[in-house]
Amino acid sequence: MSGFDYEEPPKYKILNIMPLIQNNKRKECNCKNRTFEVDSINRLVYCRKCGQVVDAFEAIEELLKNDSMFEQHLSGQYEYAKELTAWFHNHKEPIALKEMLSYYRRGLYPYCPACGKMIDLSNIKMWGNKEFLNRPKTPKP
After folding, report:
1. Which 8-state DSSP code applies to residue 123?
2. Which residues of 46-83 are buried (b: 16+ CB within 10 A; e: fewer)?
3. What are the DSSP calls for 9-75, one per residue?
4. Which of 66, 96, 113, 140 is most buried per CB count within 10 Å?
5. 132-135-137-140 Cα dihedral, nearest 10 degrees
């Protein structure tokens, strides 16, 4: 031997690349409620759900349509918030009772606004109506 070891050349496998080319064709994205990802380097727009390339004009058109739908949804939510605000404004008593109950559960007791003594809610024995509370006070003779 001359000092060189002879190695056999590696055996190459022949690949059929036609299926790869066919799989790389652009497919149509049919996802509903799509969200988009923009590749600014390659200047492409992708669907985030399926990963397919989407036409940029189609993506802009869909975003504008969704923006107007979002605006309508937002105005509906604004009207709902106004209704809730009006309801809470007219129904303060149940909120005050819930607040009082949450304090009571934490071991806190209210104070009487007239005398300043602490009141245990379990000691309340009599109740009156709101008209009696709001009636004009007549001076004592």
Report:
1. G
2. bbeeeeeebeeeebeeeeeeeeeeeeeeeeeeeeeeee
3. PPPPPP---HHHHHHTSPPPP--SS--EEEETTTTEEEETTT--EE-HHHHHHHHHHHHHHHHHHHH
4. 66
5. -50
- Give which of 42, 37, 30, 33 is closest to 62, Cα–Cα: 33
| ∠ CA 11-15-17, rounded to 5° | 155
pLDDT beneath 70, residues of the chain: 1-7, 9-27, 92-93, 139-141
Read off the pLDDT of residues 23-56 as tens digits, 9 standing for 90 and up: 555 567 888 888 888 888 888 899 888 888 888 8
